[in-house]
Structures are given as structure tokens and as C-alpha cells.
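### Sample
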Amino acid sequence: MELLPRLLYPLYEAHLRRGLKGKPQPKHVAIMADGNRRWAREAGFTDISHGHRQGAKKISEMISWCEETAIEVVTIYLLSTENLKRSETEVALLFDIIADVVTQLADKAHNCEVRLVGHLDLLPEQMAARMQEDAATTKDKDGVIVNVAVGYGGRQEIVDAVQNLIRSQADAGVAAADMAETVTAESIAKHLYTRGLPDPDLVIRTSGEQRLSGFLLWQAAYSEIWFTDTYWPAFRKIDFLRALRDFSQRSRRFGK
């Protein structure tokens, strides 16, 4: 980093922070951490693992930034069901990196509670067990709740929620003919992976892509969405603060 930008960066960050005081802020932020591979290629790396590893480091930074705000929940999209169709080598690398991310977030340096959302049965058994064990060590922490979406698909989540709702009604002795009446927006929400948590107020997607790609399709119905061309490994604190500033200036209508 050149000298002038290095000197100006803290001043600009302080300016953004001052501008957020007293303004509406999100309680739940969802992150689509996209662009790791493109960042690596454009940075001149022939091995895209550099992008994934740099992106993993950024997650820990991001949670630290959130801990300095009023944000209570973060959901971060790390591995979709579609990502599992990539090459065997890259998928194995992603498994290792994601497991390391969960380990880092479970470390005492963070006061966050880690929750895993998605189909862990799509992961290698040993890897899934390691992630579950690490996440379990954080259940008594009272800081930011971090949902790690891994093996996640938005449509599959809704299917799972409806199936679980129907099973619960069957277990309760509800007749099949009466089950349709029990399927409501509220009852489905109670069976989502993120049940018990508020829907995201703000969804951030990096890398210039402007779509949800199946992420939190139900929960993000009325979320504000903020896109940036910046690749995830290059995402800075001032980018994060800009997203919060933009959120604070929007008038939320919730479909009205």
C-alpha cells in the first residue's frame, strides 16, 4: 500500500464510523463471499487455492468488524450444493479450508456462537464431525451468532422445512386431510435452518455478481441487498462500513 492511501485510510474509516452514529443499522447481515478464484487469477496465482485461503482469512476479520457494531447475527455462504460439482481436487480443498474457518471462529479470540446450516451429510463424515465438534464448543458464547452455510441450497432448505413441518404434524396426530391448513408462512419459518433468528436485514455480495444464487431465498424476501465489484479476499473494512452506510440511508418498505 502506498504511503498516502495508508495515511488516509484510518481517517476515512473514522469518517464512515462517525456517519453511522444514530443511524439505523442491521441486526442480521448475510454475506455471499464470492470471487476467491477470480481474485487469485487476477493476482497472478496459477494455484487458485491462494484465493480460497485468503478468503478464509477475511472471514475472521469480517466477524471482528461485526463485533464492533450492533450486528447480532451473521450468515456467511461458504459452500453451496452447486459448488460440490466442481473438480474433486477443489472440493477437497474447500472442505479443508471451511473446516479451518470453523476452527478459527471457535477460537477464544472470538466471542461468537457458531452454527452450521446446510446438509452436512454431503461432506466427508470426518470433516463434518470436526466442524460439529468445534461449533459445539461455542454454544455458551454470548457474542455474534455466526451461521456457516455449508452444503447449502436455498430451495432444498424450503423443501426440508416443509417436510419437517409435515412430519411434525403427523407425529402430533394431525390427519392428512387437515395438514394443508397447518402450512403457513409462520409454520414453515419455524422449520428453516435459521429458525429462531431474525431474517437478514442486509445481504452483501462481493465480486460484481448481482443475484442471490439460491442463498436464503425465504429469509431474504425483504432484505436490502448491497453489491460490490470487490472480490471477497480484497474486501476491506471501509467496504463493510460503506455497506452499512448505504443500508442506513435506505427506506425499508417490506413489500409495501
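The longest strand covers residues 73-80. This sample (Isoprenyl transferase) is used throughout the tutorial notebook.
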